Amino acid sequence: MDLFEYQGKQYFSKFGIAVSPGDIADTVEQAVEVAERVGYPVVIKAQVKVGGRGKAGGVKLANTIDEVRTHASAILGLDIKGHVVHRVWVERSSDIAKEYYASFTLDRPNKVHLGMLSAQGGVEIEVVAEENPEAISFVSIDPLRGLDLAAARKWVDEAQLDEVAQEQAAELLVKLYECYTKGDCDLAEINPLILTPDNKVHALDAKVTLDENASFRHPEWEEFRATETEDPREKMAKERGLNYIGLDGTVGIIANGAGLAMSTLDVVNQVGGTAANFLDIGGGANADVMASALEVINADPKVKAIFVNIFGGITRVDEVANGVLEALRRVTISSPIILRLDGTNAVEGRAIIAPHVSATLITEPTMLDAARRAVELANA
Amino acid sequence: MAIFVDENTKVIVQGLTGGQGRFHGLRNRDYGTKIVGGVTPGKGGENVEGIPVFNSVKEAVAATGATASFIVVPPKFAPAAIIEAAEGGITFIVCITEGIPAHDEAVTYNRLVEEFPGVRLLGPNCPGIISPGKCNIGITSGDIALPGGPVGIVSRSGTLTYQALHELSQQGIGQTTCVGIGGDPVPGTNFIDCLAAFEADPETKAVMMIGEIGGSEEERAAEWIKTNMTKPIVSYIAGVTAPAGRKMGHAGAIISGTKGTAQAKMDALAAAGVHVCLNPTEAGEKMVEIVKSL
């Protein structure tokens, strides 16, 4: 789960990482109230989960109450790459002497944590990474030992951060690592991490991605979940516990397992069709889950055929078959359903479907045959 | 021969008394796997259809001589179950649990490497392993596998593992062992571990490798294949048309560059001499052609 910048900053604060004083605002008047409270000049920042906010006019400096009104009303409602701004973060503007970059993420190939630090932070960090990779200092951290202050001191020196920033930066990096590990982040990134002219180091931005698998030990994440905005189809799917991504094609897809779902998209594409969605019903899918999945796909008006591709492992095919029939009893499915059923209890599953086969409930023996049939019906 | 597990492997099931543990544990036994015990703290002395249940792995190993464990417990308890298995003397651990936090996986993996260097973990979040006709540990439906070799399968995706088995079995091509390594951030066993074992196994004559988008394991495997693998490999990478995944801030872009896309993986594998196919059926057909020409 990606956090908004303001949520990332609030998360950082819990671990003692310095951020600029500020607050959120959903209206122009709230923005004015925050600006008056934190003191001018202020920066007004659009809260959207997409990069390039500054270039899109979503980040503005305001020196007076009138400027706050002007900029806040321009930013609230602004469309940034399809993300409409409903909330801004207003904070006391910082003078910047230097911009650094710092992040922690998992080093998957080496199965340890990876820290990245650069004295050349800011909006062009990806260009720096490509053209001048030695300007980024990488450090591997053993998950069993963590990052201590001594190692952090050595690291800030290697990364050639300014002398005056080094001790504060080292302390901040230890806290950021704590936030990354104890806070169960997939990513904790600060860009830019700034040095002010009066030699203070603090986080000017926050990019945090939380590992949803760790939700069970973070009840406090509930407030982050409440602000998630998404495609209405995706929202409906999530409420039903389904892993769904909306696309623009005409063949609705339901599969069990992310790999099989991806492969189903590939095969539909190869035989001349387009997928309306990616939907993984996961392992252990029962009749209820299957019925919910069909309901979600059915709600998409672009769908002309539904390809259900099941290879049972944990998922039992007989339960899937019952789910399909249950869904057909609950709602009128407006597109033909093409079923391909294999794996655990496939024989039982196919036997459950057999008496109900019709022009709108079709079974095919293989994945490729089923894809061809679905595409043929969707294009008819 | 098979890799990692065979007809002599004795297996305990951690979580045998739970719904999933019971269902899959009994299915594995019905397949012919030597399921010799179960472990559920507090339920020692009970039995599940004749399989004795123990309070701890240590007790189970002492009583049965098991060397492998099948872990079917919720994500909250799975890391501790893995460590308990290693401490109890198990040397091959299969963990199918989905949803373990990435940081817990990183800690568990590194503890195993450091404290229990002889122990192999398969998974988490994997379908398990099957050496057809000999041993099935996990959630794979045994009837889709065909004994006798000569193909080894290694796959990162659960359901595509079944698909691969099915494509080959339908064509009358048997398998030596099929390993589902799982797609979690910190897998205990990776492509290279399995490819090396298949390369060393005299009965495996060719390998089917199923990957998917994300990470760089396939690219790393391709590098390894170039200099170490003499047996033919057919591969399929899922996700050519998959929607673009989440981009993880700048960090993702800095680390991965162009790696991780299906195309990058297919190019790397093709450059290493692997037969790269566009869908599972095509991969199955290519393998039939290779096996017939052996």
Span from first to last CA of chain B?
18 Å
> Any idea of the CATH topology of the largest domain in chain A?
Rossmann fold
SSE pattern of chain B? EHEEEHEHEHEEEEHEHEHEHHEH
The assigned CATH architecture of the largest domain in chain B is 3-Layer(aba) Sandwich
What is the percent of helical residues of chain A?
25-40%
Q: Helix share of residues of chain B?
A: 25-40%
CATH class of the largest domain in chain B, named Alpha Beta
Could you tell me the CATH topology label of the largest domain in chain B: Rossmann fold
What is the CA–CA distance across the termini of chain A? 39 Å
Largest sheet of chain B: 7 strands, mixed
Shape of chain A: elongated
Q: What is the subunit organization of this protein?
A: heterodimer
Description:
- Chain A has 380 residues and is α+β, with helices and mostly antiparallel strands.
- Chain A folds into 3 domains: 21-92, Dna Ligase, domain 1, CATH 3.30.1490; 98-225, ATP-grasp fold, B domain (D-amino Acid Aminotransferase, Chain A, domain 1, 2-Layer Sandwich), CATH 3.30.470; 232-379, Rossmann fold (3-Layer(aba) Sandwich).
- Chain A is 37% helix and 25% strand.
- The two termini of chain A are 39 Å apart.
- The mean pLDDT of chain A is 92.
- A 7-stranded mixed beta sheet of chain B has the order 3-4-2-1-5-6-7, with helices on both faces. In chain B, strands 9-8-11-10-12-13-14 form a 7-stranded mixed beta sheet, sandwiched between helices.
- Chain B folds into 2 domains: 10-122, 3-Layer(aba) Sandwich (Rossmann fold), CATH 3.40.50.720; 128-292, Rossmann fold.
- Chain B has 294 residues and is of the alpha/beta class.
- In chain B, helix 3 (78-87) runs parallel beside helix 4 and helix 6 (191-200) packs parallel to helix 7.
- The interface between A and B is large, with 65 and 63 residues.
What's the short version?
The complex is a heterodimer of chains A (380) and B (294). Chain A has 380 residues and is α+β, with helices and mostly antiparallel strands. Chain A has helices spanning 5-14, 28-38, 65-75, 125-131, 149-158, 163-182, 222-226, 232-239, 258-270, 287-298, 317-330, 346-353, 367-379; strands spanning 22-25, 42-46, 59-62, 79-80, 83-84, 88-92, 98-107, 112-118, 136-141, 185-195, 201-203, 207-210, 243-246, 251-255, 277-280, 305-312, 337-343, 361-363.
